[in-house]
Design goal:
This protein has 145 residues and is mostly beta strands. It has one helix and eight strands, in the order H-E-E-E-E-E-E-E-E. The strands form two sheets. Strands 3-4-2-6-7 form a five-stranded antiparallel beta sheet, with no helix packed on it. A three-stranded mixed beta sheet has the order 5-1-8, with no helix packed on it. Strand 3 (63-65) and strand 4 (68-79) form a beta hairpin.
Length: 145
């Protein structure tokens, strides 16, 4: 029995190595997992995915992306895999913060599908023990042209 406890502790220590997981300077990660498919359920492979995370704000320097308005904290461009899946990590630190995430999926040329933009507001990026999100699942359905 003791061997299992020691192994579990070793795994926990390695998982936290180099990362501050408590106090005001803690770090945390939110994983965004998504899938793009047609309205008939077929995966959309090779689509370009633009993900923009904004910290909500109405300051003069804020920008509008999709239905989100705020200060850009991250922008990523990805490509869907053969199953239509995509993923990205967002990192935060210090106090939890809210993000508005906009995802634009641009299908490959000539496949007869329309680009789709969706926004997910009020995502609390922070540790789950205080109500923060450690993962978000997004489904994007592309309509035919």
């Amino acid at each position: 029995m003791l061997r299992y406890v020691a192994l579990g502790l070793a795994v926990a220590l390695v998982g936290c190595q180099g990362r501050n997981v408590s106090g005001p300077n803690r770090t945390f990660t939110m994983l965004v997992l998504g899938v793009a498919h047609t309205d008939l359920g077929s995966p959309v492979s090779g689509a370009t995915v633009r993900m923009t995370a904004l910290e909500p704000s109405t300051a003069p320097s804020s920008v509008k992306v999709g239905n989100c308005q705020g200060i850009e904290v991250s922008a990523k461009t990805l490509t869907t895999d053969p199953s239509g899946s995509f993923s990205a990590e967002y990192f935060g630190g210090g106090a939890p913060s809210y993000l508005c995430l906009t995802i634009e999926v641009i299908p490959p040329n000539g496949v007869g599908l329309q680009t789709r933009v969706i926004s997910q507001d009020s995502l609390l990026l922070g540790p789950p023990n205080i109500g923060g999100r450690d993962s978000v699942r997004i489904e994007v359905i592309l309509a035919r042209t």
